[in-house]
Amino acid sequence: MAESVPRWRLILAFAIVYIVWGTSYLGIAIAIETIPPFLMAGTRFAIAGIILMLWAQVRGASLPTRGNWRAAIITGGLLFLVANGAVVWAEQYVASGVAALLNAIIPLWVVLIDWLRYGSVRPGLALWTGLGLGFVGIMLLIAPNQFAGGEGVHLLGAIVLAIGGISWALGSLVARQADLPKSPSMATGMQLIAGGVMLLILGVVRGELTNFQLSQVSLEAVIAVIYLICFPSIVAYSAYVWLMRVSDAARVSTYAYVNPVVAVGLGALLNNEIITGRTLIAAAVILSGVFIINTYRAQGEAKFNWRLWRKNPAVVAGAENKI
Fold this sequence. Notes:
Blueprint: H1 7-31, H2 37-58, H3 66-90, H4 96-103, H5 106-116, H6 125-142, H7 155-175, H8 184-205, H9 219-246, H10 249-252, H11 255-270, H12 277-300, H13 302-311
């Protein structure tokens, strides 16, 4: 049952989730212009995780156990090392708005993996329609031929983003049964730290430190990293958790339709990314498919979603992929 809260607080919280999470893709694009991608992501997540864990401690959360850390390493690896690592790597070759669109299909992967791996209800006609639209939208983006005034996106970048999306979906489903702390801030902070450390190790192994010098980092990149830590990772996440307490999951999940629009618009406005007819058509098809899938899940699996949120709210509707 939703709590009675002032309307202005609801509007503000929805605006934060809608807009701030939509800006994260542009923030990443700016940050990786002068900072190696995995070092940037690892630093961002580790710092955000430390802040969230300290906040949870201040609010009285229990210290994590060894089992909690084991679960955080597994889920953090899937959610941050692979999924978010795929985003920061792919944005070297794929426009930030297009990356947001390809990530918008994560509900598609969640439904398929939940059915194939965990034996959930077999998809019906409506769900298959949504899945089909999602795949058609992907093909519109990656097909190599010229179409509606635009060329296909970087194929390897799109494939890496798809792998990242699958890893995100799998990590979200694994996390619902994982031995994570009851405190949402503590659980997410641990996953962020685990994923961040692994991303830093990956960056070192790939040689990102070899030719990297702090003097080469632009002021814009520093501001982007600070912004990513403070706003998408902490402010917007906190607004999301609060909304999940006072509103219903289906309404909160509408951010999935707004974030890609914000990302595409900001990429064009501030990062000189070209919006072609091809991108607009693919966006309409993909978001239509996501709408059908989310509507199906909201109607058929509302109880499942709420149980999942109580266990680990950040994995509902792909929230952590924005933080």
